[in-house]
Every structure is written in C-alpha cells, then in structure tokens.
Amino acid sequence: MKTIKLNNGIEMPQLGFGVFQVDDLITCQRAVSTAIDAGYRLFDTAQAYQNESAVGQAIKTSGISRDKFFITSKLWITNTLGTDPEKAIDHSLHELNTDYIDLYLIHMPFGDSFNAWRAMETAVKAGKIRAIGVSNFSPDQVTNLMLFNELKPAVNQIEVNPWNQQPALVDFNYKNNIQTEAWAPFAEGKQNIFTNPALTTIADNHRKTVGQVILRWLIQRGIVAIPKSVHTQRIAENFAIFDFHLSNEEMTMIQQLNQNHSEFFDPHDPEAIKTIVSGGRPGANKN
Ligand SMILES: NC(=O)c1ccc[n+]([C@@H]2O[C@H](COP(=O)([O-])OP(=O)(O)OC[C@H]3O[C@@H](n4cnc5c(N)ncnc54)[C@H](OP(=O)(O)O)[C@@H]3O)[C@@H](O)[C@H]2O)c1
Question: Ligand 1 centroid to 21 CA: how many Å?
Fold first, then answer.
C-alpha cells in the first residue's frame, strides 16, 4: 500500500475504507473484516456514525497486529464544550477497543473547535492519539486554528469527487502541508456517477470500472481516498487501483466534470449548519 508522510512524520495509507451510514453493527463489522481481507488497513469511522465498536471488533479479531492499522475517528460537534472533548476521546478509545487512535479529526467546524483542539493536543502528548486534524474546514478556519494553537492539523478531510473537486481548498491544504483526504469520493453515486459517459470512456480505455478510475484520479493527485461499500466484490474492486495510470488527457477530462457544487451540504450555509447541529443530514434526500 502506498503511504503518505503527514506533517508530523507519521505514515498514512493513501487508500482506506469508510463506514458512514453502515449503521447496523454486524454489517459494519462484516464489511470491515472483508476489507481487511482485501488488504485495506486505513479505516475511517466517527462518533456520529455510532459504529466505532464494530470497526474495533473487526480489527481485534483480524489476528493482524494493531500497529499495521491506521484508525481514524472524529469528534462530534456536540462534544466540543468544556471537558466533553476529553471524555469523547476516551469514549472513542473504549469503543474502538484500542490504546491509541492514529488520526482524530474535528468532524465539522462548528461548536467550540478551539476547546476541542486543545484537548486533542493534550491527548497527542498523552499518547492517546498519533495525529490530529480537521474535517470540512475552510482555509480561513484552518488558518485561525493554526495561528492560535501549538499543533497544526495533519489532515483536512473534505468532500472531493468529480462533481465537487474543491480545487482552491485542495491547493490551500497542499501549500500548508496539510494532507487532503477525500470523503464521498463517488459522491455516493449521485447524478449517476457510475454511468457517466466521460468516466465510462476512461474506464473502458483501461478495462477498469468507473469507481476505480475515480479513486485512481484522486490517488494521482496525492489525495487520500476512503470509499465505502458493504459489497465484497466492490470492496475488492475499489482496492485494485495500483496497476494502471491515467494520462494527462484523462485527468483533464475528469477535471472538466467539476460543477463546483456539493450534492450534500455547504458548510458555510447557515441553514445547513442548523440542520447538522440539530442532528439532521443536509442533502440526504438528494439523488
Ligand atoms: N467528514 C465528513 O463529513 C464525511 C462525510 C461523508 C463521508 N465521510 C467518510 O467518507 C467515506 C466515504 O464516503 P461515503 O460513504 O459518503 O460515500 P462514497 O464512498 O462516495 O459512496 C458510497 C456509495 O457508493 C457505492 N459504491 C461503492 N463502491 C462502488 C463501486 N465500486 N461501484 C458501484 N457503487 C459503489 C456504495 O454502495 P454499497 O455500499 O451498496 O456497495 C455506496 O452507496 C464515508 O464512509 C466516511 O467514512 C466523511
């Protein structure tokens, strides 16, 4: 597996496995075990997904030593106040059944991010977390956090897929030595992404699938990708992306698909923020 060195020196696999919306714990554990068998070692969960325990259980029962894995979890916004972040970190460790978490992210730039960040810095010093980062943070929010704290985010996990490529944010992360990690690399299938003509043409050129082309496009741009699937064949398919190369022309064809618009939510939209804080999923009913 190709790895990327984060700004604190630790190595992160460039391809991983996400478990958002895999709410049933048995299904989640089975999917993670299948992914481990397929070769994945990076797993992306979150307190908000309520499946940290299933990820931890699959890793524990794999028979593979803990240090071969890279576990990511995320602090939810309602756990950012007072002493809640410390408690939330300890809760994640308990649920994941591990002594340390490789990467811990502030899930969204809402609530008391500064308080959460300082608790996460303390947890790094205590050996509970190896790297800390943010998710869905814009350049101004990352800059503000960096200027007033000791540790810089190692990762900014953001939406990146052919429909919403976020070039300015990816470029900002790159220039600040913050690793971009792409959530929803397939835009969860929205706008018929898997049958898009341009992507299908490129896939046919390489006898690969559209999903593999999208992941390859991200990998060639130096981005970490964490596709989700609960199907054995797709889990294996999404991992088989290191035996082909997209040409510059193909990379440009994909770049031209950018619509500069999220199919999910805009973290700057006050209505979306209210929906998220009240426990809803903005854009959840869009196809
Ligand atoms: N930080 C954040 O705010 C945030 C937000 C969203 C997601 N995430 C993270 O990013 C991960 C990935 O994003 P996501 O789960 O939202 O969406 P995604 O990975 O873009 O898409 C997942 C969807 O694509 C389908 N799929 C997967 N592989 C396929 C293939 N090869 N061919 C056809 N269909 C395929 C899956 O169906 P099946 O499962 O039925 O195969 C599922 O419906 C999440 O699991 C989570 O870890 C983070």
Answer: 9
- 262 Cβ below 6 A of ligand 1: no
Mutate to test the pocket of ligand 1, among 23, 24, 228, 262 (most ligand atoms within 8 A of CB): 228
| CATH number for the domain formed by residue range(s) 3-277 | 3.20.20.100
The pLDDT score that the predictor gives to residue 125 is 98
Please state, rounded to an integer, the average pLDDT across all residues of the chain. 96
In the chain, where the domains are located:
3-277
Q: Tell me whether residue 174 is one of the annotated catalytic residues.
A: no
State the average pLDDT over residues 114-136.
98
> Residue 70 pairs with which residues in a beta bridge?
42
Q: What is the residue type of 114?
A: F
Six-digit token string for 209: 């699938």
Express the helix, strand and coil content of the chain in percent, nearest 5 each.
45, 15, 40
